[in-house]
Amino acid sequence: MDQSGWTLFWVVVALLVDLTVRILAIIIVPRNRRPTAAMAWLLAIYFIPYIGVLLFLTIGNPRLPRARRKKQQQLNDYIRRTSHGLDLGTLRPDAPPWFTQLVRLNRNLGAMPLSGDNGARIIAGYEDSIAEMAAAIRAAETYVHVEFYILQSDATTDDFFRALEEVAARGVTVRVLLDHWANRGKPFYKQTCRRLDAMGADWHLMLPVKPLRGHYQRPDLRNHRKLLVVDGRVAFTGSQNVTDSTYNLRKNIKRGLHWVDMMARLDGPVVASVNAVFLSDWYSETDAVVEGFDGFELFKVEPGTGDLDCQIVPSGPGFEFQNNLKLFMTLLFAAREKIIIVSPYFVPDEGLLLAIQTACQRGVHVELFVSEEGDQAIVYHAQRSYYEALLRAGVKIWMYRAPYILHSKSMSIDDETAVIGSSNMDMRSFGLNLEISLLVRGGEFVAQLRDVEDTYRSLSRELTLDEWMQQPLRSTVLDNLARLTSALQ
Q1: What is the CATH number of the domain that holds 383?
Q2: Distance CA 45, CA 25 (A)
Q3: Angle formed at CA 153 by CA 191 and CA 223, multiple of 5 degrees
Q4: Predicted model pTM
Q5: Phi, psi of 399 (to 5 degrees)
Q6: Do 233 and 295 belong together in one domain?
Q7: Is CB count within 10 Å lower at the N or C end of the chain?
Q8: Closest CA to 300 of 265, 266, 268
């Protein structure tokens, strides 16, 4: 065969391979995937075939490995069995039917029970929450469980770490979990590891990407949870990481960025559920069951300082369904008067956007708090692509003024029900991150959240539709391109 014949041969082979890839993509990509995500992947594979296929093979599976998902199912079954029929406090009377159904949904998906007689106090100051967590740690008698997406020993968090060192020195067991990819290579990572080693803490990385050691899953899956449990009596959870408000990143310091967060201090039976999330993650990462925490003892807790009804909702790629998205959707459809959403990264799927638009059309007052300035370019522009639809629906959008990043995550509906936690309202938090959300029924807690929302409002400016329609064309193009990439799950 001469040169021209070989050239023709390889051209035909390339065309056949290209056609085969496209046909296989149509068969494989849409299976068990949302239509928008499937379409985004197909567009990537069709228009940038080599890069698109490589990306799909690398991050195309949004689920944790099968063994890890099996562990989660076993843990869910165990938690349901052991907490069934236990005295978890007295529930508030006259719960509306939709709330009872929501609790059942959360129980079926995330296993955690609803409990009564809980105390819950919001801490809206960044350094205040670190100080309160350090004080709670110093009161520990038996154990401290620490689980944070980002955990850094720096000047701001030094007292938190000193508290851990002090209790560890007097024999208190300190167990620590931190996300591998979120901390690896970041400022103070090695210093933090050395400090944990020196105090004698039993610590492990969450979702480690170490293929040579047999640890591998989709590399952009994250354990995004933030929680602290002390002796099973007190717990903290919310949006804040244990790090400086600049995250110690040079680019943030150069831009003068500081993060604004919100945590909740909990006491009462709900603490057992927060602890169950930690112990589940501990077992998932270490294959070790912590002694002394059988189901009965875990959920054997005393009433707290309040009478709030609370339920913990864990979510993430270890679960079959998107637990947090279903929680938010149910609340949106249940609202009768008011919905206030705080989310630094707001990239809704079609259902969530439709639920918000429908709430406005039903006459519900809806407000959304976001940051005026973004720290992640793609998410920032993807989020902006939804502003016009939200404004036209009647959503009041508040933009927290730069140079602060409003990182708190909450939703309150009417005057009795609220959720706070680690979960953003974006497709990453719904499908790729392990998250923890706290559902609370009680006007006292919602009143606390309203005070925080009022503070955020005073530090924000309202975005109007007239202002938004003046956006330059280049911004619209960037926003729309980012919106397409946000669906790649």
Answers
A1: 3.30.870.10
A2: 8
A3: 100
A4: 0.91
A5: -110, 110
A6: yes
A7: N
A8: 268
